[in-house]
Design brief:
The chain has 150 residues and is of the alpha+beta class. 45% of the residues lie in helices and 21% in strands. It is built from five helices and five strands. A five-stranded antiparallel sheet has the order 1-2-3-4-5.
Length: 150
């Protein structure tokens, strides 16, 4: 064990304050910029994926829409309908909603509210994918979705 603790000389303390002050200010600024919501790139990525999915539905390009879905969502749709994703998705009652979506991102999850549809997305290594579509809010329960992955 070393000797008793002694206070640092005043110059050392002052120097330390000056050294840490810019770092503290930078940390506070970073927290304010990053901590109050998702970075714009993630919000834009989720929005673009959701809009692309809706555009694929509007174009009746179900193969492209399926490619924009999360793997587990595609598998559950195919299992439930007993056919490949494209024809299974075509048989769903999904409206191709237009308009600018209200996009909210929480970590690697996103919620897109459109005038006629609500989508849920997750971020994967290869981009944002739709995990649920055709979703409608319920008064006292979670959203009910026409297409979803378990």
């Amino acid at each position: 064990m070393t000797g008793p603790l002694r206070p640092l000389p005043r110059r050392a303390v002052q120097g330390r304050k000056q050294t840490w002050a810019p770092l503290t200010a930078a940390a506070v600024a970073a927290t304010l910029l990053c901590g109050c919501g998702a970075p714009a790139a993630r919000v834009d990525g989720a929005r673009q994926a959701g809009v692309a999915f809706e555009q694929a539905l509007a174009d009746a390009d179900y193969g492209r829409a399926c490619a924009l879905m999360a793997p587990q969502t595609r598998e559950e749709l195919e299992d439930n309908e007993g056919k490949p994703c494209g024809p299974a998705l075509e048989g769903q009652d999904l409206s191709a909603a237009g308009g600018e979506p209200d996009t909210q991102v929480y970590g690697r999850q996103a919620l897109l509210r459109l005038p006629d549809d609500t989508l849920f997305l997750s971020q994967f290594a290869d981009g944002w994918k739709v995990t649920a579509a055709g979703c409608a809010p319920q008064t006292s329960e979670p959203y009910r979705c026409s297409v979803k992955g378990g």
